[in-house]
Every structure is written in structure tokens, then in C-alpha cells.
Amino acid sequence: MLAAPLALAQFSPGPLARAHQSLDSLSQCTGCHAVGSGAPQFKCLDCHQEIRQRLAGRRGYHARVVDTSKPSQDCIRCHTDHVGRDFPIITWPGGKEAFDHRETGYPLQGRHAAIECARCHKKEFIPSEELRTFAVKDASRTFLGLSQDCLRCHPDAHRGQLGSNCLNCHAFDAWKQTPGFDHAKTRFPLTGLHQKTLCEQCHRTAGSPPVTQYAGLRFDTCAACHQDPHGGAFRGSCQSCHTTGGWKQISRLPGFDHARTRFPLAGKHAAVACAACHRNADFSRPLAHAQCLDCHAADDPHRGQFRHQADGGDCSFCHTEAGFTPSTFTLDRHQTTPYPLLGKHRQVQCDQCHVSRQQVVQYRLPHDQCRDCHSDVHDGQFDAQPFFGRCEGCHSVDGFHPSTFTLALHQESRFPLRGAHVAVMCSGCHKPSRAAPDSPALFRFADRSCTACHPDPHQGQFASPRTAATLHCASCHTEDSWQEMTRYNHAATGFPLLGAHRTTACRQCHLPDPADAGIQAVTFSLAPRECGGCHEDAHAGQFASQNGFAPCANCHTETSWEPTRFDHNRGTSFSLIGQHETVPCEDCHARQMRVADKSVVIYKGTPHACADCHSN
Prior knowledge:
Blueprint: H1 3-11, H2 44-47, H3 49-57, H4 60-65, H5 71-75, H6 117-120, H7 128-131, H8 150-153, H9 199-202, E1 205-206, E2 211-212, E3 242-243, E4 246-250, H10 274-277, H11 293-296, H12 331-334, H13 350-353, E5 356-357, E6 360-361, H14 407-410, H15 426-429, H16 506-509, H17 531-534, H18 568-571, H19 585-588, E7 592-595, E8 598-601, H20 610-613
Antiparallel strand pairs: 1-2, 3-4, 5-6, 7-8
């Protein structure tokens, strides 16, 4: 039973791919391989006739990359087999995603460059005559046979009106762009305003299914597209009076001059279309024209805001026939209104105050308070007494800055400025809350204590015993200077400053931890009270007690390290009597030891016997 597989394994390097699995037997080898020819020969083109035809016709991708002198041997560069059922039989040069479509003879341009391969390479896009040449049963798995004709993939949006060559008008970048189309080459060249007319205004959509009409349109007369506004009153053609340059341009109307009528056309009226006044093209009906509102009442842009005036709000008070804008209403005339413009208001553009609401510019405006026009930048902080929301208490029409609120007025507030506070800029205190940086600057403070503005550098060490939120900064500091400590009594701490301690800088005892930190890291309550807590023990612990600190006060004072008040008779077991009283200390205490690279005099263990000091 193992003979057949063993025999097959001796000849075949491995199973064929799934596409060729029907040929995977010893009897089928010669269907693909030529025997006895010396060099390996393959019969790929015996089955794949569609590739053979393309090589012969020099068309398509294979005709560009296959060596026609040895086509069968060249196939295996991209199509390998005997690697397994699931091994892909197609090897893309450089990878499928990096495939250069220009090799096919059809470079991907514009929008085509971003389209996935599977969107174009479909069975339904392959012409039937190409399908008949394919050896593969499943045409949805091939990349061959696509036509370069646009309509093979894209539906004909024009339903055959404009032929099959889409590139005559369109490009690959976008369908709506037609760089190849020139209307001047058609039977109806566009002139005048026709050049600005949208295509769809002439080329309407009709039919079922609907399609835009490009062929078969009438254009022999203007009436083919345009309605006759004169209702047939004029027998001549439209071209007798009008041109494509514009309906309002009347070029040929012999013997008529509107200036001879009771309403000469001046200014903008000269450009108005006749039908705008002569409705229904009835030129014999008399028209009222004593006032502007006789014609413009319906389109009064002010919606009757000036009807209360003595002239009934006639337009000529502010406008001329030369144009609705600019208005003839000047600044001097504004000064005669109930709201004359003063200060900065004189520089404000009209449309900054007279804004449009419901498509109507407002001219009758409330102006009793500044906040009728201006938003309250203080968010209601001054609504209560004494200002009651009136900006005039601090500002004038000459400008929002500088404020008219002076230092003298500040002294009458609940927070008179004293000491260094007098020199602080307003913005130094009156600024947005730290909790809400985008909020308006604060001017009314519920908390007026020092820490409401100043951070506590002592981290609450001096907070009141009753409430940690209340600090007594004034117990030590003044408003003149933070560093002025004239109010502070160090004796209240239980450690009065005496002698040289009175001239010692605070930071020499109250050190931050770590040493390079600021005053925020200083702990005042934990400052050492023993001498050894601040001063280095010059005696290297010879006199240290059980707690590790030497009783320095037994010998030294706060006034000076020397002289000492040490009594040799009471403090030691060797009383100085007689000549010993005049002997310098160093004559007896001459021995020294090295401690941390320093020489320290040894006092403990000094000899007492005479012979220890006096030889012979």
C-alpha cells in the first residue's frame, strides 16, 4: 500500500497547488513537463491559451514581462508549483500592493490610482468574447480580459447621447470636471450671460430613467428657453432690443428716451430691468413715483422703523438714487438723535450697534445703560450697591481703559490699600480665580485674608488652633514688606534669642529639607533647641550626655564661644592650685586627634600625676 506514495515522492518535489491538483499523479507529469529535452521545459501555454494569444498579439502585462524566446521557462518566475495545496500559485514581483499597473499598458491615473484591484477586476466587466478564450472555470479569479473602454466598467450617464469615448470631455480625476469639453465647438457657442449660466438650467433632466438632455435641444429662438415677458406685445425678435450680454441692456429701441418721461432714470434706476417697474410688460399703465415707498414699500429693509418721522420715513432722508449704500446719514446728523455719539462711540462702525435681527437691521435701540449694548465683563459683580450695574462708576465713553476708579476711591472700599499694596498693579489682585482661569477678573472678595491672594509659604504651620484655614500673618509680617519681621517675638516660642543668636539670620537655624528647597520646605516648629542641633561639636563628643548632645552651656554662653565659664576646680577631678592656675590650657591639654580631617584637642584622659607632665 505504501508503494505508490513512495514512488510519487521519488519523482515529485511536492503536492501541486489547488488549481492543478487534478494533475497530481505520475501519469500526468508529461502534461506539464517535456521529457528528454535536456534543459527543463514546461508546457504552460498548451493549457493557458489566453496567455498564448496575448503573447502572440503583443498585448497585456505578460507580453511586456515574458521573454517570448523562452516563454514556458519564463512562466515559473512568477508561478511556482509543487509547494503544497494552499500555496499561492501567483508570486507578485515586489508584492501585490506594490504592483506597477503601467506594465499592463493601462496606467492608473487620477481616481483610478486609489481604487482596490477587486473593484475593477470582476467577471461582469470582462467582454464575453474574452471569456470564451479563458481556460479557467472561475473567471472571477482572473486579472485578464478587462477592456480599456470606460463604459465597460462605468454606466453611460448620457444614455448614448454623446458616444462612447468619455475622455473627450472627462478626466480621471473627477467626473464633474470636464477639461476636454469646449462649448464653443458646439452648434451653440456661449456668449454674454450664457457663459455664466449653470449647465443644468439649459440641460434639464427628463425621461425614465431620468437622464440629462444634451442632444436634441432647441436653440433656434430665444423663446425656446426664455418666456416672453411682454406677452407678445412686441412683434420683433428678442435680439431687436436685447443681447446675450444682459436682459437689462437694451441695445436697439429707436426713438425712445426714458429721460423725456416724468421719471428720468438716474443712478441705479438706469440699470433696473423694465419689467421690474412695468409689470406684465404693460408700459401704458401710469406708475406712482412721488416717493421711494411708492415702489419700495413692500421691500422696505427697515420694516417701517422710520414711519414715526415727519416725512413718513421717506428713503431720500438717508439714501440717493446712486445706491442704497453708502447712506447719506452722517455723524453730524447722528448727534441730533436722542443718542449723540461721544468718545470711542464716534469710531464704532454702524453695523456694530445696528445689527440684523430676523433679517432686519435694528435702528431704534435701547440705550439707557451701557449693558443695553455691551456685555458685562464683570459678570454681575457690581449689580449691588453702590454701583447697581452702571458702568459709569469706573469707565467713560472715552475708553474702557484706563478705569476712572482711583486709589482714593479704593481707600473708601472694604479693603483700603496700605504699605506695599499701594504699589501693586490692579491686575495683580483683580484677576480670574485660580479655580476658574477663564472666568472674569474678581473685584468682590468674600475672603480678604492674606492667604486669599498670597500662598502660605509655611504650609499651615501657623494656622489658628481653632480653624486651620485662618492664618495670622500679621503676627509676624507687615503690609510694608514680607521680610519685615518687627512684630515677631521669638521669646514666645520658648527659645528667646540671646547674645549672638540675636544677630543670626533666621535661615541659619530654620533650614529647608532638602537643603536646596525653598521656604515652603522649612519646618519652624521642629527647629532644634540643643546647641548640638545647630552647632558642630568641637570636642567630638567628649562631653556628650546620654541623649547624644553635649551640655555646652556648662562652659560656653550665647554671647561668645570664648572666653568660657568653665570652672576647672568644680568641673573636673583635678583642681588647679598654685602655679597650675597660671598655666595655659594647651600646655596640659596638648594631645590631639583627627576627626573628619580636623584636629580636636583631647580633654578626657589627661594625666593627673606630676610625673606625667613634669619629667626628671
